[in-house]
Every structure is written in C-alpha cells, then in structure tokens.
Amino acid sequence: MSDYCDSAPGHTFHGPYHEHEYGFPISDESELFERLVLEINQAGLSWLTVLKKRAAFRQAFDNFDVDLIAAYGDEQRQRLLNDAGIIRNRLKINAVIHNAQVVRDMRDSHGGFSTWLEAHHPRTHAEWVKLFKRTFRFTGPEIVNEFLMSAGYLPGAHRDDCPVQKRILAARPAWTRDG
Fold this sequence. Notes:
By secondary structure, the protein is mostly helical. The chain has one domain: Orthogonal Bundle (Endonuclease III, domain 1). The longest helix has 21 residues. One of its GO terms (biological process) is base-excision repair.
C-alpha cells in the first residue's frame, strides 16, 4: 500500500480513512462487520466508490447492527436492492445478510467476531483465506487480505516511513504480536 501512503493524505475521503482507521486494531463487532461489508462491496470497484457510499451503507444496513441484519428477510433484501445509495448487487447483499448470521453465531461459539479472529491468529494469508472461505460468503483472497490488514491482523497497511505507522505500532495490532 505504499502508493496509498503517498496519495491518501489530504484527500477528502481517503485521507481520514488512511490517517485514523486503516491498519488500526478493531475489536468492536459493528466496526469489524462494517469493514468486512465494505471490503466485500469494494470487489470489482474502487475503494473511493465505497468510501463515498459509506454513510449510505451505514444507513441502509442499520449502522451494521449484526442482529438486525441477520434477521433481514425478503422485504429488507428488496429495499437494499432498490437503494441507489449503496452498491446494489444481489450476491453481495445476500452475503452481507448471511455473514451477519455467521457473526451473530460466533458469540456462542467464540464469544464474538473479534475473539474468533484472535482464536485463529496468527495465520498466513493463505490460511486466513481458507478459513474465511469456509466461514463466510464472498470472501476471496483480496477481500480477506484487505479486511485483515485494515483491522490490524496482517501487516502492510502502511509503509514503515509513513507517519501513521508509528501510531499503529503504538496501538499494538495483532500482527505485531505474532511471535
């Protein structure tokens, strides 16, 4: 992401994400789920498109409340497919609803999404991809990589000479605790 460290600072959408979110550890379920949803919706599109639609995603998906999304039925699916503010892709919408059900169930199996991630950490990128493909829908190698980098489970979000990297290291993301 070395290009991102050069181009994002000062940009209306990329700047705040680069400076305050990308690569910092996340443990809050709604924040983790939001990041996963955004990465899934970015597939085939630019990250800028997703960032511009982020507020609309939050509104359309009830602020990424996993319980509400997990309970979505046909009426909510149709509402989402008709919402011009978000990316209206049936496969992605269905994946979000399914994945919310999976995350909700992780509370019983692992205590939550973040504890599920911690229970499987550390892993190589390839191992993470296999795990995500078994667990979630619409999670290919690039989506898994970006999600895990953005949430602090894999390194690479920032260059070592990027000023943000020092703040990330101070926050002790999971990838700094690998061994």
